[in-house]
């Protein structure tokens, strides 16, 4: 760094004091420094370029050594610092080298200060040029180095590329492994490392899928195969999330059969304990409507025909009593009322059926009649109320199935959620089955290639599923993964086929567009353009993107839960980062060494002779 004369003169100052017989160290130092400067000038003349090279080498070694020892502004840079920051750091280091070297070349404070300022300026300018030069040089030789590495060890090169993509994803290798393993444990064994990585993994998989070779075949087969099975996975997620292992029809059939069996037992016990039934309150309820002047309808003595309300009430009355009826000869039938439990119960069931099929107006007059008869049945048998309530609750659970189906197909979540929350547990179970049934049907019947999970991403479904589905958390994770897997397939295989066709043509050795471009440039005298076209055509090979590398990349990215090794993935990333850091350190040392060499060579020297 040009400090040898100064150091030697300082060391010889005591001897010069003795030799000159002076007690002034400044005078002795001046004699010693002049002798060292003269010796250096003579040496420079004698050695010529070789001597200059030796000085430059000394400056370079010193600069690199200082950088290696940590005496550099590069210590303050982040690992991902850009070219501008690295250029500023290199300029600062070179300015320091230049200032020091310039100061060491001078004699006297004034001359040393001037040389230091001049050396700092020249060093800063030269140091600022080194990072861009290294970047350009690295860009020029990177394809060659990549090609050599890819051919020498394609698996290692592929691991490095995947490790770079993992770093870009922002997710740690351990978390990626856990995500893939969790997906497998939750019934989605088709979830791969590329899916867990997100966009960086998807884009890398796209690079493999759009170039010919075994890698593309593996990617296409894997992605198309799992997409064909998406409907089953979505259906399984819905069935497990809503706790609906059977279809709505199967559940309704099973519940109906159970209701019938329970009713036979319960009502059988009620019959055995029943006494006579008083149906008079029910008849009186009917007569309130059929009597003139009460509801506005005509009396039974009118010659006008019955309307729909009178007709249905008269039918029920005729089931309960013979009063007012005539035989086929037109003669009045002696009055008689139903009194046996079985007969009264059958009439009650008939009224229930009429209510189910009746219009709202008819239901309004039939329900009070049914309730009056129901109270008399309850009074005649202590077991009847329990049997009736059990049958009613089981019927409501069956009806909830259809209510759930309707809620899944239409309606607003503000209505659906409160209605579900107001149900009993057995009704909620039926509601869940009915809700999941049409969704599963849609997933199973959707065309191959369609995204079966997309209809399940609406805000309304998420809100309703959170309130209805017992296994909603896992179900939502599975739906999210299905969306990710579909996006991976879309990124890798979707879009224009132009890139695929060009890659295939290149692999076959027939690329008319490139050939045409080369010929056109040659005929027009644009040799540089022709060379660029040829280089572009072979860019995959030059960059290390060989078929063998792509095959290894596909194998890594398509890893699934059973074969996922978290430690191996972590080691792969660590080794790649260490290799990158070694390269950066070497480049930094080369840059600082160059800065030191330039500082020595270009430092200003105006020594007095």
Concise synopsis of the structure shown:
Helices cover 76% and strands 0% of the residues.
Q: Would you mind describing this structure in some detail?
A:
By secondary structure, the protein is mainly alpha-helical. It has 27 helices and no strands. Helix 6 packs antiparallel against helix 9 (199-209). It is rod-shaped. 35% of the residues are buried.
Characterize the biggest β-sheet. Answer: none
Q: What portion of the residues fall into strands of 2 or more residues?
A: under 5%
SSE series: HHHHHHHHHHHHHHHHHHHHHHHHHHH
What's the mean pLDDT score?
80
Radius of gyration from CA coordinates = 47 Å
Total helical segments: 27
Judged by helices, strands and strand pairing, the structural class is: mainly alpha
Question: What percentage of residues falls in helices of 4 or more residues?
Answer: over 70%
Shape: rod-shaped
Oligomer: single chain
**Number of separate strands:** 0
User: Which regions contain 5 or more consecutive residues with pLDDT less than 50?
Assistant: 292-300, 507-512, 604-609
- State the end-to-end distance: 21 Å
SSE blueprint:
Layout: H1 4-20, H2 25-47, H3 49-68, H4 83-105, H5 109-152, H6 154-169, H7 173-185, H8 193-197, H9 199-209, H10 214-228, H11 230-241, H12 248-273, H13 280-290, H14 308-320, H15 341-357, H16 360-380, H17 384-409, H18 413-421, H19 425-445, H20 459-468, H21 472-493, H22 498-508, H23 512-523, H24 527-537, H25 539-542, H26 547-557, H27 566-602
Helix pairs in contact: 1-2, 2-3, 3-27, 4-5, 4-27, 5-6, 5-27, 6-9, 6-26, 6-27, 7-27, 9-21, 9-26, 10-21, 10-26, 11-19, 11-21, 12-17, 13-14, 13-16, 14-15, 14-16, 15-16, 17-19, 18-20, 23-24
């Amino acid at each position: 760094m040009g400090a040898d004369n100064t150091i030697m003169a300082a060391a010889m100052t005591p001897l010069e004091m003795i030799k000159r017989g002076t007690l002034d160290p400044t005078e002795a130092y001046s004699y010693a420094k002049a002798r060292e400067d003269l010796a250096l000038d003579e040496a420079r003349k004698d050695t010529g370029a070789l001597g200059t090279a030796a000085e430059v080498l000394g400056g370079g070694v010193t600069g690199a050594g200082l950088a290696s020892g940590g005496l550099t502004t590069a210590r303050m840079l982040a690992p991902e610092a850009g070219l501008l920051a690295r250029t500023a750091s290199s300029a600062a280091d070179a300015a320091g080298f230049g200032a020091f070297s310039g100061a060491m070349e001078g004699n006297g404070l004034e001359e040393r200060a001037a040389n230091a300022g001049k050396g700092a300026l020249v060093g800063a300018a030269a140091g600022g040029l080194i990072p861009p030069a290294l970047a350009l040089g690295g860009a020029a030789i990177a394809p060659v180095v990549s090609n050599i590495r890819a051919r020498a060890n394609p698996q290692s090169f592929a691991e490095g590329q995947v490790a770079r993509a993992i770093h870009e994803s922002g997710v740690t290798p351990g978390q990626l492994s856990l995500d893939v393993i969790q997906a497998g444990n939750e019934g989605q064994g088709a979830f791969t490392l590329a899916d867990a990585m997100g966009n960086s993994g998807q884009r890398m998989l796209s690079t493999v899928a759009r170039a010919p070779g075994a890698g593309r075949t593996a990617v296409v087969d894997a992605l198309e195969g799992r997409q064909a099975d998406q409907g089953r996975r979505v259906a399984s997620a819905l069935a497990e999330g809503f706790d609906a292992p059977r279809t709505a029809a199967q559940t309704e059939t099973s519940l109906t059969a159970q209701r019938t069996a329970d009713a036979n037992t319960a009502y059988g016990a009620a019959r055995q304990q029943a006494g006579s039934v008083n149906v008079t309150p029910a008849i009186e309820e009917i007569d309130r409507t059929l009597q003139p002047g009460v509801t506005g309808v005509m009396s039974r003595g009118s010659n006008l025909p019955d309307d729909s309300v009178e007709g249905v009430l008269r039918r029920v009355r005729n089931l309960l009593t013979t009063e007012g009826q005539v035989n086929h000869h037109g003669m009045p039938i002696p009055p008689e009322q139903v009194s046996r439990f079985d007969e009264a119960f059958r009439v009650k069931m008939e009224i229930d059926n009429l209510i189910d099929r009746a219009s709202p107006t008819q239901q309004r007059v039939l329900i009070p009649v049914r309730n009056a008869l129901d109270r008399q049945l309850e009074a005649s048998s202590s077991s009847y109320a329990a049997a009736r309530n059990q049958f009613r609750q089981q019927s409501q659970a069956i009806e909830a199935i259809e209510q759930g189906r309707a809620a899944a197909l239409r309606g607003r979540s503000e209505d659906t959620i409160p209605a579900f929350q107001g149900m009993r547990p057995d009704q909620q179970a039926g509601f869940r089955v009915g809700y999941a049934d049409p969704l599963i049907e849609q997933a199973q019947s959707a065309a191959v290639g369609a995204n079966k999970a997309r209809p399940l991403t609406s805000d309304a479904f998420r809100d309703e599923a959170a309130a209805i589905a017992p296994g909603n958390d896992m179900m939502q994770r599975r739906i999210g993964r299905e969306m990710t897997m579909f996006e991976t397939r879309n990124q890798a295989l979707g879009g224009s086929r132009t890139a695929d066709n060009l890659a295939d043509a290149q692999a076959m050795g027939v690329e008319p567009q490139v050939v045409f471009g080369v010929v056109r440039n040659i005929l027009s005298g644009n040799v540089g353009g022709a060379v660029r076209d040829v280089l572009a055509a072979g860019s995959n090979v030059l960059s290390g993107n060989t078929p063998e590398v792509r095959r290894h990349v596909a194998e890594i990215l398509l890893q699934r839960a059973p074969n996922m090794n978290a430690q191996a993935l972590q080691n792969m990333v660590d080794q790649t980062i260490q290799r990158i850091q070694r390269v950066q350190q070497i480049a930094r040392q080369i840059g600082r060494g160059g800065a030191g060499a330039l500082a020595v060579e270009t430092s200003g020297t105006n020594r007095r002779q």
